[in-house]
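subagent[fold] <- orchestrator: predict structure for attached chain, return tokens only, no commentary.
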Amino acid sequence: MGEFDGQTSGLLPAGFHVMTKPIGPLCNLNCEYCFYLQKGNLYPGTSGWRMPEDVLESYIRQYIGAQRVETITFAWQGGEPTLLGVEFFRKAVELEKKYANGKRIENAFQTNGILLNDRWGQFLAENSFLVGISIDGPRELHDRYRVSKGGQPTFIRVMRGIGYLKAHGVAFNTLSVVHRQNAHHPLEVYRFLKDVGSGFIQFIPVAEVMPADGNAAGPGLPTATGKLAAAPWSVEATEYGRFLCRIFDEWVRNDVGRVFVQLFDVALEAWCGNPPPLCVFGEACGAAMAIEHNGDLYSCDHFVDAAHRLGNIMEEPLGLLVRSSRQIKFGRDKRETLPQYCRACDVRFACNGGCPKHRFIRAPEGEDGLNYLCAGYRVFFRHVDPFMRFMASELARGRAPANVMRWARQRDAPRAGAKMPGRNDPCLCGSGLKYKRCCGRLA
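subagent[fold] -> orchestrator:
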């Protein structure tokens, strides 16, 4: 196959993101809710899923060369990328340095943690990889769906992997799938993740579909015709909203500025009047794609199917595929197919209809295309509104949004039956300051 240097016209967006799948859907776990395992059906007869060296080199060169930004981030996922071994990524780092051309290169690495050991820990630390660990909460909740190929629990092995990261000083965060079971235990999940040492927490809701008759081959995109229903492991929409609210209530009173929850940070951007930085809540999408082991580029990690294959980077330049009319339409469709129910919603500015993958239910008026998680989003965004307004106001005045913790505790005092302090009384928040110098000022 031929290959290209990645140089394209000035019409390209300054920067874009590609989720890299160097081992395709191959994984050493068999998570019941995983939507990616079945992607192997796109490549029948494939025996070796390892990204060939020529594809790896061409991809790294093109990905760096096609972007007009100073920092380039490679996001390595799967499947399970550790199955490729340390040497594959050592080669990738060498290629990144070869083609960096003065740009700063960063690497993010998502793993289930099962195969991590001292060798991995040393490599990841030496090369400043940011590691994402997939863990769904304490043992019982994690092991409900995240099991090995033989159906065995994996929690202990994941915790051992985290131990190796800590021993080598590797920066890590956590990604927790919110499913039908752990959604009922929000504070248990949140406090566990903090105890593990995760300073940056991502919650990803499971919202998979299946034919309403129950005959489903597994989670994935709704390809069947007829009535669809949520898969049994999917989180209930309203319960997801409550899950987020319970965690937010604890976070906003105790952990602002110390623990970073991705969704809360994204929401604050919206309340500050900025475009949401996460594609799920952006008005349009299309700047976050996925590349498979053989160089095939897809519109999105959630839309890896034949209809959304943009082409192969060994046959067409990555930059042109990213800027193709098909990809532009894919991104615009998110906004243009939004149901009227969403357009009239008071929290649309924060949600924008959510991910197109999850738009498989009908609005109350019968219009198709409503997000399955809509009820949960409405519960959450309305709940956080006063706190987000306060933090946005603090930022606009050049003050720390963490001041919201004292403000939130002050708001709680009357409801708890406490007598409001006088100006010179000790503040109720326990800071040791006079009320007029503490929460009284914030009020």
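orchestrator: received. Logging for downstream: DSSP finds 15 helices and 14 strands in the chain. The longest helix spans residues 374-396.
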